[in-house]
Structure formats: structure tokens, C-alpha cells
Recover the amino acids of this structure.
């Protein structure tokens, strides 16, 4: 009886994760107290950060919330941070939490319209190179005026729609039949190779779009949360922010687009996968089928969702309210005018966003460890010891490297606060402050595409329901982002050095 109970407890720990993964997580939890007492809190803090990144890297083995949460809880118990500090980080990032809770759910209620529009684009653009560039550029333009997470949520919704359509047909089912897109057991052998190629095709588009959100997000003060913070500290309005960033953002945007085309032409890093004719035929047939059976009520739903989408763009571009509040308005409008009235219908929309929201709060716990143990202090001190263009370039590099490890909003907050204090104390000139602010903004936005934990939009994609469907792992994201990281980061560094 006892053996059976003990075995059950072991089997229940992290569920169906591989045994080696369970042992690794247990090893982390067992080793951390000894590392703390033997080597001190700074080393223990860095070890914890690496362990947390490991849980992100293994997201397809186990959702990072559970193992990452256990590490964060242990950090509080060991005194590496406090519950109050974790709460402070969550409170500081409350707008992002609101965004995830309501905006992602709001996008769920615009799916019919989004799938309709993007199906026309996908089937209308025959060239994969043009389609890839289109996904990258459109994501960049939208992210400049909206929020990168919002744009990512839109693209994920579209990709999930495409995938579910083909997977259902590949499993021998009709469009109207219920189906689990995560189960390949029913996929007909004839379609298996096409399905794998379609996964690769969607991975290509998703990565191009994700990088596009970074390309656009860096350009305006509303593109990323840290941009607004930097603009407020510097006293820049919308236009001034765009103009000051342009010497860096415009060359980076051009190089990013060129990289997109180059990857599709060469097929390097897993890109260049074409949409097979058999898959295109199924999507075209689906589009014809939907057009034929679409009722007046369904057309009205698409029309209302399009109107709500226009409101969303205007509200976000003009920053009429916090992004999360606008998302809540989207939910109310899209459900009230489309007959969605039951709690179960509305509740389903939150299934995608809330697990990631919980994971993000766990991530804030790790950020609190970084803050309380001053893990980045030596790097900050080194940057301030430099002078002139070298110092500005070092700001860009330091912010980029740290953003790959931690949260770019957190890194930008630390650096802009330090620079503002130096300006207020008279240690630096206003001109030097402006140059450093540009380097901080571009540094936290551009090189951070290197890892999923660098940008919230990338992390959201990694932990979304779509990622396991298209086999998008942490390692694969890093590999596919590598060419963009190199070309865009180097271009940004050269622009900062020569033009700022």
C-alpha cells in the first residue's frame, strides 16, 4: 500500500513529463539551498536564473509554470527575494497582466474575421517569399501602433485556424465535425508528410511575424511597455520619440526585411518551406465551402468583428486607455453584438491567456531575485565607467545581453532610472542622456529577439497552444531567430555608434 502510494506520488509529480526531467527539477530544488550556503546569494541567484531558463527551454516537455513556480517559491523560502518584492514586480507590470488577461481573450472573439481576412491573403499571395515578407512587415507596422503581444495573439489565432482546418481534413473528417488538432493518431498516412511540411511552413511564418513585432515595437513609444517608460523619463512625445529612434530603427528595419527575404531564398535555419499544392487545395476548398454556406448572420458576425477591430486599432494608436482596458471593451463589444452571452462561451476565451499570465507572474519572481541580489550591478557599473561613443555603444550591448537573459522591460527600467539619476545629479549632460536613452531603448528591443525570455511576445508564442502543434520548441526558436539576432543586432550597434 505504502509502495503504491509512494509510486503514485512520484508519477503525479509533473505528470507525464519524462523521468529525467522530473529528476532534473528535483535536483535543482535539492541543490539550491547548498549552493546558497556554500557560494552565497549572488551565485545562487544566477544559478536560479539559469534553472528557470532551462524550464522555458523544456516547455514542450512540461509547461514552465509548474517547475518554474517551484523554483520561484523556493527562492522566496531561501530568502533570495521576498513575497513583497514579487508582488511589487507584479504590481509594476500590472498593465502587462491586464493586457494578457483581456486583450488575448478579446482577440479570441475576432477569430472569424481574422481567419477570413488572412485566408484571403494566404491563398491570394502565391509567392512564399512575398508572403513571409508580408507577415514580417504587417506585424512590424501593427506593432508600431498596437502592442507586440496583441499582434502576436492575432497571428497565433490565424495560424491555429489554418492548422486546425488542414489537420481535420488530414484526419479524414469534414469541416463541420468536432476534432482534436493535437492528436495525430487519426491522420491518414497519405497526409502525414504534407502535415509535417505544413508545420514547417507555419513555423516560418510565425517566426517572421514574431521578429516583425520586434522590428515595429522599437520604433514608437507605444510599441513596447519600456518605450513608454523611457519616453516619459526623457520627456519625449510620440513624434519626437520616432524621430530620435529613426537613425537606428530604420536601418534595422531594412536589414530585418532583407534577412527575411534572404532566409526564404536560401532555406537556411529551417526557412524556405513552401506551401504544398495539396495543402493549398484543401485550404482553397475550405474557403469555397465557407463562402457557400455562410449565412447572413455569420456575415453579420464578421462585419461586427471587423468594426471592433477598427475600434481596437484606433483606441490603441491614440492610447485612449490602458491596453488591457481596451481589451475588455473589445470583449464586451464583440460578444454583446454577436450573441455570445453564456459564461461558458466567454470563459473559453480565457483558456489561452491565463496560464501564460500565471507564468509571467512567476517570471516576475525571478526578476525580483535579480533585483534584490543586484545581479546586474557589476555590468551597470562597468558601462558607467566608459565614456563617449564607447559608453553609448556599451549601453546598447549591455541592455541587449541582459534582455536576452531577463525581461527587457525590467532591464530598461533599471538602466533608465540610473541614467535619469545621473542627469538629475549633474553627472551627465542632457545630450549624453538622450543618447543613452536611445541606446537603452534599442538595446532592450533588438538583440532580445535572441531568446524567448527576452521578449514577452516570443515567450507568449513559445507557451501558446500553437507551439506544440507546429513543433516550435525553445531551442528551435533560438536557432530560427539566430540570423535575425546577428544581422539586426550588429546593424543596431553600428547605427548607435556612428549616428547617435
Amino acid at each position: 500500500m505504502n509502495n503504491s502510494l509512494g509510486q503514485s506520488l512520484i508519477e503525479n509529480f509533473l505528470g507525464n513529463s519524462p523521468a529525467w526531467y522530473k529528476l532534473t527539477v528535483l535536483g535543482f530544488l535539492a541543490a539550491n539551498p547548498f549552493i546558497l550556503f556554500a557560494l552565497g546569494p549572488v551565485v545562487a541567484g544566477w544559478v536560479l536564473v539559469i534553472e528557470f531558463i532551462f524550464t522555458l527551454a523544456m516547455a514542450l516537455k512540461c509547461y514552465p509554470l509548474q517547475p518554474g513556480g517551484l523554483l520561484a517559491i523556493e527562492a522566496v523560502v531561501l530568502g533570495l527575494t521576498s513575497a513583497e518584492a514579487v508582488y511589487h514586480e507584479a504590481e509594476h507590470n500590472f498593465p502587462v497582466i491586464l493586457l494578457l488577461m483581456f486583450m488575448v481573450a478579446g482577440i479570441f472573439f475576432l477569430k472569424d474575421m481574422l481567419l477570413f481576412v488572412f485566408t484571403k491573403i494566404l491563398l491570394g499571395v502565391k509567392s512564399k517569399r512575398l508572403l513571409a515578407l508580408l507577415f514580417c512587415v504587417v506585424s512590424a507596422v501593427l506593432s508600431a501602433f498596437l502592442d507586440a503581444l496583441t499582434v502576436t495573439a492575432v497571428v497565433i489565432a490565424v495560424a491555429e485556424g489554418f492548422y486546425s482546418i488542414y489537420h481535420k481534413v488530414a484526419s479524414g473528417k469534414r469541416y463541420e465535425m468536432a476534432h482534436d488538432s493535437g492528436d495525430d493518431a487519426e491522420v491518414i498516412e497519405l497526409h502525414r508528410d504534407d502535415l509535417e511540411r505544413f508545420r514547417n511552413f507555419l513555423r516560418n511564418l510565425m517566426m517572421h511575424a514574431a521578429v516583425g513585432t520586434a522590428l515595429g515595437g522599437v520604433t514608437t513609444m507605444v510599441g513596447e511597455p519600456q518605450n513608454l517608460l523611457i519616453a516619459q523619463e526623457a520627456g519625449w512625445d510620440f513624434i519626437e520619440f520616432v524621430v530620435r529612434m529613426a537613425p537606428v530603427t530604420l536601418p534595422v528595419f531594412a536589414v530585418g526585411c532583407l534577412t527575411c527575404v534572404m532566409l526564404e531564398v536560401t532555406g537556411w535555419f529551417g526557412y524556405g518551406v513552401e506551401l504544398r499544392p495539396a495543402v493549398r487545395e484543401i485550404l482553397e476548398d475550405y474557403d469555397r465551402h465557407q463562402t457557400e454556406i455562410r449565412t447572413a448572420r455569420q456575415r453579420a458576425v464578421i462585419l461586427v468583428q471587423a468594426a471592433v477591430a477598427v475600434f481596437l486599432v484606433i483606441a490603441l494608436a491614440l492610447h485612449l486607455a490602458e491596453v488591457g482596458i481596451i481589451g475588455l471593451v473589445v470583449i464586451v463589444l464583440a460578444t454583446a453584438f454577436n450573441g455570445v452571452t453564456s459564461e461558458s462561451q466567454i470563459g473559453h476565451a480565457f483558456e489561452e491567456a491565463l496560464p501564460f499570465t500565471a507564468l509571467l507572474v512567476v517570471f516576475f519572481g525571478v526578476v525580483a531575485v535579480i533585483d534584490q541580489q543586484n545581479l546586474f550591478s557589476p555590468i551597470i557599473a562597468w558601462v558607467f565607467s566608459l565614456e563617449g561613443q564607447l559608453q553609448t555603444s556599451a549601453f546598447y550591448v549591455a541592455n541587449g545581453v541582459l534582455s536576452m537573459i531577463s525581461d527587457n522591460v525590467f532591464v530598461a527600467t533599471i538602466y533608465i532610472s540610473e541614467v535619469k539619476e545621473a542627469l538629475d545629479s549633474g553627472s551627465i549632460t542632457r545630450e549624453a542622456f538622450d543618447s543613452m536613452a536611445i541606446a537603452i531603448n534599442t538595446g532592450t528591443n533588438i538583440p532580445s529577439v535572441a531568446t524567448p525570455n527576452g521578449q514577452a511576445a516570443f515567450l507568449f508564442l513559445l507557451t501558446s497552444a500553437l507551439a506544440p502543434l507546429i513543433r516550435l520548441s525553445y531551442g528551435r526558436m533560438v536557432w530560427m531567430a539566430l540570423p535575425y539576432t546577428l544581422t539586426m543586432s550588429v546593424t543596431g550597434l553600428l547605427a548607435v555608434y556612428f549616428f547617435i
Observations:
- Residues 94-221+270-351 form one domain.
- The radius of gyration is 23 Å.
- The chain is about 75% helix and 0% strand.
- The mean pLDDT is 87.
